[in-house]
Design brief:
Layout: H1 10-19, E1 21-24, H2 30-44, E2 55-58, E3 63-67, H3 74-80, H4 86-93, E4 98-107, H5 115-120, E5 138-141, E6 144-147, E7 150-155, E8 167-168, H6 179-187, E9 194-195, E10 203-207, E11 212-213, E12 223-231, H7 245-249, H8 256-260
Antiparallel strand pairs: 1-10, 2-3, 3-4, 4-12, 5-6, 7-10, 7-12, 8-9, 8-11
Bound molecules: 2-oxoglutaric acid (AKG).
Length: 271
C-alpha cells in the first residue's frame, strides 16, 4: 500500500455524513476496468466453478450475481485491496478494516420487462435493504458519522439515467425508523429516492446502514459492478466469503491482515 496519504476531502466527508454515501469519480484506470470486467465475464461464463470458492447465482437470465471473488483473478484481489479506496473505508469505519465480502453483478433489462410500466416511475428499485442499522452498526465520534460495515461499489460500465444506477434513500443511514416504514414512505414519493449515475471507473462509497437497492434497467445496456465490503477485523466475513487460508499464505504480507481479518481484537479507533 502506498505511503501517500489518501483521505476524503471535507466536502466528500460532509456528503457522506449527510447522505450516507459519496460518489468518488475517476478512481479506476481504463486498464483496471478492463481487467476486472474480463475476470467477471469469465466467471459468468465459467461452467465449472466447483474447484473455486466463487459462487454464481442467476436471478432470472438477465441478472448474474457472483461472490467470494478475490482468489479467482488478481484484478479482483487488487480491487479489494485498492490503495485509493481502503484508506477511505478506514476513515469512515474509524480504524483498520478486513475484507468482509466481494460480490459483483452483471445485469441487463429482463426480457419480460414491461417498459411502459418501468417508465411510469422515475426509478424502479428492485429491493431496498441494508446490512446494518443505525444505533448498533454505527457510531458518532468527534462529531463524525462512522459505520462498521462499509462498501465500495465500482461502476465498470457507464451508468446513465436508464441504465440501472444504484437507488438509495439519502439520510436513511442515520435513522432508527422501522426499515419497512421507511421504504414504504420513500417509495410513495420519488423525491426521497436518489439514483446514483456514474461513469465507468467511479466508485460509490457507502455505509451499509444506508438503505439501497439495485434498480431495474430500462435501456438496452448491460451493467457491470464490483463491490467490496469491509468491517473492523474482529467481525466475521459474510457467510460464503471465507477466503482459503492457503491462498492467504501466498499474499504479500502487507495485505494479508486485510484479506484474513487476522488483526482481530487488536483494534484501535484511529479517526
Ligand atoms: O446493484 C446495485 O447497484 C446495488 C447492489 C446492492 O444492493 C448491494 O450491494 O447490496
Amino acid at each position: 500500500m502506498s505511503s501517500e496519504t489518501v483521505s476524503l476531502t471535507s466536502a466528500q466527508r460532509l456528503h457522506f455524513d449527510i447522505y450516507g454515501y459519496v460518489l468518488l469519480e475517476n478512481v479506476l484506470t481504463d486498464d483496471e476496468i478492463e481487467r476486472i470486467k474480463n475476470a467477471l465475464y469469465r466467471i459468468k461464463d465459467d461452467d465449472n466453478l466447483d474447484g473455486t470458492r466463487v459462487y454464481l447465482n442467476w436471478r432470472g437470465d438477465h441478472h448474474a450475481h457472483m461472490g467470494n471473488l478475490v482468489e479467482y483473478d488478481p484484478a479482483l484481489l487488487e480491487y479489494a485491496a485498492h490503495p485509493k479506496l481502503v484508506p477511505l473505508v478506514e476513515e469512515v469505519v474509524g480504524g483498520a478494516v478486513r475484507l468482509e465480502e466481494t460480490e459483483a453483478i452483471i445485469n441487463k433489462r429482463s426480457a419480460d420487462a414491461d417498459l411502459d410500466e418501468l417508465n411510469k416511475r422515475r426509478y424502479n428499485p428492485t429491493g431496498f435493504h441494508r446490512g446494518t442499522q443505525h444505533g448498533w452498526g454505527t457510531y458518532m465520534e468527534q462529531n463524525k458519522f462512522h459505520c462498521i460495515f462499509v462498501k465500495t461499489l465500482a461502476y465498470l460500465t457507464d451508468v446513465g439515467p436508464d441504465d440501472g444506477g444504484t437507488c438509495v434513500i439519502p439520510g436513511s443511514h442515520r435513522l432508527t425508523w422501522n426499515q419497512s416504514e421507511m421504504i414504504d414512505a420513500a417509495l410513495s414519493d420519488d423525491s426521497l429516492v436518489h439514483q446514483v449515475e456514474a461513469s465507468a471507473g467511479s466508485v460509490l462509497l457507502f455505509g451499509e446502514s444506508l438503505i439501497h437497492s439495485t434498480t431495474a434497467i430500462r435501456s438496452d445496456k448491460e451493467r457491470v459492478i464490483l463491490i467490496a465490503g469491509y468491517t473492523p477485523p474482529m467481525v466475521r466475513e459474510w457467510p460464503g466469503n471465507e477466503v482459503n487460508p492457503e491462498f492467504i499464505e501466498t499474499l504479500p504480507e502487507e495485505i494479508r491482515p486485510l484479506i484474513s481479518g487476522s488483526d482481530s481484537w487488536h483494534w484501535r479507533r484511529r479517526y
